[in-house]
Each structure stands twice: as structure tokens, then as C-alpha cells.
Amino acid sequence: MSRRKSTMASSSSNSGVSSAGDGGQEKQKMLLSSEHGHFSLVKALHLADLVTELNGFCGVMSVFSSMRYCLGDPSDYSALWAALAFMPFGLFFDFMDGKIARWRKKSSLMGQELDSLADLISFGLSPAAAAFAMGIRTSLDHFFLAFFVLCGLTRLARFNVTVAVLPKDKTGKSKYFEGTPIPTTLSIASLMAYWVSQGWTHANIPFGIIGEGTILEFHPIVLLFVLHGCLMVSKTIHIPKP
């Protein structure tokens, strides 16, 4: 998750900021509310917003690559490798959009929402889709993976709501994250990359399967996604911001 949200919250709390120094927010609001102009939405996007879109692009391409792997030869891991590789590229763009927003001193509510939606795709849906492609796909697995994605969704929504009221340092930046940030799901992606390198997919997934042939059939390793989901929505875990 980039620092665009805390940057925007800091600027919005400063009542002495004039409309000329509002980081382009008023201009963007005017363009978005305009009833004329087919491309007013495109004109409203800041450079940082376009970089955020690249984060979302990486997430979508990761999901598509997981789907392509499901349609191909299970022994050909090229599409699966692509699915896993797009995730860290998404993290790069997630980091850069905050850098660019601070450099250009332009932030907006739209950028905040774009950031969260892109993060959900790249670091929530993408790892779940990759896990499904690798063979974690029983009915109960589906439930656990959906729980993981929804925890990411809830964590991002909570951050958007609470970012303005979290304790700040002297620069106006929030002192900590509540719960683990959603990009930390890349740790699971790294683990899955190791499994692929060892050929541990489908019938060879670590720890096998429990309750095979029953309605409670599931892969115990999917509980790693459940644990990570719980960490994301935790209220008591405070991760200091770098």
C-alpha cells in the first residue's frame, strides 16, 4: 500500500491550504463533475493515478495468466510463473505512485480509491487465483480463499476510513498500519513460487489434502491464506510505517 492516503489526509487536515495549492483536488473534482467532454475522466487523472493503474494492470494480467495456466498443460508452468511475476511488478508501481504523488504534490480522493482497488486486485485476488490454478480448488478451498480476499477488501476499506484519524508524526504521516498491509501477501506468492520451482502443484501440494472424497475436503495449506487474512483485519496489530 502506498503512502498516497496518508499524504492526502495530511493535506486535507490543513485548513490554511488555498485552492491553488490543494494538490489539484479542486480541478479534479470539477473535471469529474463536468457534464460535458467525453474524456473529462482521463483529463482528471494525475500522473500518480496513471501509475496506480499500472498496478491494477499487473494484477489483472496475473489473474489472466493463472486462468491461462488452468487451460493449458499442467506440466507447463510458464503461465503460472507469469502470474506470480506480475505481483512484485504491481508492488513496484504501488510504491512509485506514492513517490510521484509527493514529488508532484498532487493527491486526491480518486487516487486514494484507485490505490485501494488496484491493491485488492494485485495483492488479494491475484494470489488467490494463483493458488486456485496450482490446485487448491476444492469447495472448501474456495471458501477459504474467498475469506482471504474479503479480508483484504475489508482491510483496505478500513484504512480509507481511518487514515485521517490515526496518530500522525510531525510530517503528518500516520505512525503505523492497523493490521498487516495487503502487499505483505507477496510473502505467500514467494512461497508459491518456491512450490512451483519444486513441482509441488496439484497432487503434490505440500501437506496434501484432508477429508478427500467428503464435503469437508480441503488442502491444509490454504489455512495459511486464512491466517494472513486474519492478520490483515486485526485491530491490535500495529505495524510501524517506514
From TrEMBL:
Comp. bias (Low complexity): 10-20
GO terms classed as biological process: phosphatidylethanolamine biosynthetic process; phosphatidylserine biosynthetic process
Enzyme class: transferase
Main subcellular location of this protein, as a coarse class: endoplasmic reticulum
InterPro entries: CDP-alcohol_PTase-I, CDP-diaglyc--ser_O-PTrfase, CDP-diaglyc--ser_O-PTrfase_fun, CDP-OH_P_trans, CDP-OH_PTrfase_TM_dom, CDP_ALCOHOL_P_TRANSF_CS
Single GO MF descriptor: CDP-diacylglycerol-serine O-phosphatidyltransferase activity
Subcellular location: Endoplasmic reticulum membrane
E.C. designation(s): 2.7.8.8
Transmembrane segments: 79-96, 117-136, 142-164, 216-234
Cellular component, GO annotation: endoplasmic reticulum membrane
Pfam families: CDP-OH_P_transf
Keywords: Endoplasmic reticulum, Lipid biosynthesis, Lipid metabolism, Membrane, Phospholipid biosynthesis, Phospholipid metabolism, Transferase, Transmembrane, Transmembrane helix
UniProt keyword annotation of Iron present: no
Stretches the record annotates as Disordered: 1-27
Lineage: superkingdom: Eukaryota
Catalytic activity field: a CDP-1,2-diacyl-sn-glycerol + L-serine = a 1,2-diacyl-sn-glycero-3-phospho-L-serine + CMP + H(+)
Pathway: Phospholipid metabolism; phosphatidylethanolamine biosynthesis; phosphatidylethanolamine from CDP-diacylglycerol: step 1/2; Lipid metabolism
Topology of this chain in the membrane: Multi-pass membrane protein
Family: Belongs to the CDP-alcohol phosphatidyltransferase class-I family.
PANTHER family: CDP-DIACYLGLYCEROL--GLYCEROL-3-PHOSPHATE 3-PHOSPHATIDYLTRANSFERASE-RELATED, CDP-DIACYLGLYCEROL--SERINE O-PHOSPHATIDYLTRANSFERASE
NCBIfam families on file: pssA
Protein's name according to its UniProt entry: CDP-diacylglycerol--serine O-phosphatidyltransferase
Originating species: Penicillium brasilianum
Organism classification: Eukaryota, Fungi, Dikarya, Ascomycota, Pezizomycotina
